[in-house]
Amino acid sequence: MSVDQLRLIGLLALFLLVSSQQGLAQETRLPASSANPSVSPTPAVFSSQTLAELKQLQRAALQSDYAYRQAAHLANNIGPRLSGSAQAAKAVEYVAGELRKFGCDVRLEKVMVPHWIRGEETGALVEFPGMAAGTTQKIVLTALGPSVATPAEGITAEVIAVKNFDELNSLGRLKIAGKIVLFNYPFDKQMAAQGRGGDAYGEAVLYRSDGPSAAARLGAAACLVRSAGGADYRLPHTGYTHYAPDAPRIPAAAVTAEDADLIANLVSEGPVRMKLVLTPQTLPDAESANVIADIKGREHPEQIIIVSGHLDSWDLGTGAIDDAAGVAVSMEAANLVQQLRLKPKRTIRVIAWMNEENGLAGSKQYAKDFGKEFQNHFAAVETDNGAGHPLGLNVKAKPDVRKMLAPVAGILHESGAGILEPAEHCGADIAPLEQAGVPAFSPIQDNRFYFNYHHTAADTLDKIVPKELAENAAVVAVLAYALANAEQSLPR
């Protein structure tokens, strides 16, 4: 099936999804009379004043370019922000300064983060069926964080290509020991084209996270994985690999989809040998910080609504869609509340998390420092799925929460974002809050093309459409202020 056919299928699927969910949003809207406490049989969740302020916030967000300017500064002026780097430190300083400018109570929460540095990364096939004498085949790859290094001269070994864990284990140690293992598990592009990019990624990323240790248990010298991403532009997708405690740490890298197929095709014809050179370094942990900025609630300052994105990024691109966009829309939510002189009943807390990509140290530190206060965390919002057009909200909470938010869905429906979808998970950084029972939310976005660029050198500012980023800011700002001003607590 061609790329054009996949895109056509995706557009049709997205149209059907939006159409059906828009109908659902209309069906689940509260009747107009229910917003009036004098005629409602039960207390209204939102006052008429709050609903008017939500519409005001939405209009202001859709007309503002603040979020885009912040994403541009993080991506272009600061650049890639891998934890422990000078750019990550600069980003912390910059975001804290911006949030102070419009009156937030800002603090830096100290976080010790991994400091891994990418070094040389090269690969070449040096023996393969049909090769011309004196030639090699270049392999395009990138090290996975926090891969260990090969010897300085590299590793030269036979490559064994497998499709999955079952095939690896069926070969056993005798055939794997001393070899370079390639996991050639493809990202499901058709699934992504139908709007289920996250599901496709979830399947493929298992080999990136667990593959190196699985190969190491059988004595492999190194591990390669097919990139977990949707586009075939010979771009390798980096990411985090989890070294299991029961397996040796071996060098690990992601190869492009094209190179994975090249190797697998040649292996099917006969023995293939590869030279792999990776020279990353893991330095001592570095001091960094989560940026925490509060707009204090006027009635219940102890009750907190988190609005967040992660400030760190991988180092191949400039971290625009992953996740300068998420930080920027969170900053915009606070900026708009302050600009419009709105007074939330509860505290709105913006957090720019550090080290989501390769360790979640910021999230873990927050849970350690604030875990005893989670009972007073009213809700948590995380934006970490790109900057595509928002369709609505993922909701990890009791079913009644979606019913309570029907008036909010009605407002968001005006910009095509009225879906309220039950979810099992709303974000890696807010996972400790989810586990504590705090209601969690994340924007549902058009992510059909997000994983084409995710964790690659192509994650750059041009992938953000300013209008769509403003739409995401509107969703986050409206949700945050609605939660901050709800007349009732959310069930847990």
Tally of individual domains: 2
How far is it from the N-terminal to the C-terminal residue, by CA?
46 Å
Task: Report on the biggest sheet.
Answer: 8 strands, mixed
Hey, roughly how much beta strand do the residues contain?
Answer: 15-25%
Overall geometry = elongated
Query: CATH topology of the largest domain, which one?
Result: Aminopeptidase
CATH H-level superfamily of the largest domain: Zn peptidases
| CATH C-level class of the largest domain | Alpha Beta
Strand order of the largest sheet: 1-10-12-11-13-16-14-15
What is the CA-atom radius of gyration, in angstroms?
24 Å
Number of strands: 16
The structure class reads alpha/beta
The number of helical segments is 15
Pick out the low-confidence regions.
1-13, 15-41
- What is the average of the pLDDT values? 93
CATH-derived architecture of the largest domain: 3-Layer(aba) Sandwich
Helix proportion:
25-40%
Written overview of the protein:
The chain is an alpha/beta fold and 492 residues long. The chain has 2 domains: 3-11 and 21-114 and 285-485, Aminopeptidase; 121-281, Glucose Oxidase, domain 1 (3-Layer(bba) Sandwich). It has helices at residues 3-28, 48-63, 66-78, 86-101, 165-176, 189-193, 197-217, 257-267, 320-339, 361-370, 399-404, 406-413, 431-435, 450-453, 466-485, and strands spanning 105-117, 121-127, 137-139, 141-143, 155-162, 180-183, 222-226, 252-255, 273-278, 281-295, 300-310, 346-353, 377-382, 390-396, 419-422, 440-445. The protein contains 15 helices and 16 strands. 39% of the residues lie in helices and 22% in strands. Mean pLDDT is 93; it is low at 1-13 and 15-41. The strands form 2 sheets. The protein has an 8-stranded mixed β-sheet, sandwiched between helices. Strands 3-2-9-5-6-7-8-4 form an 8-stranded mixed β-sheet, with helices on both faces.
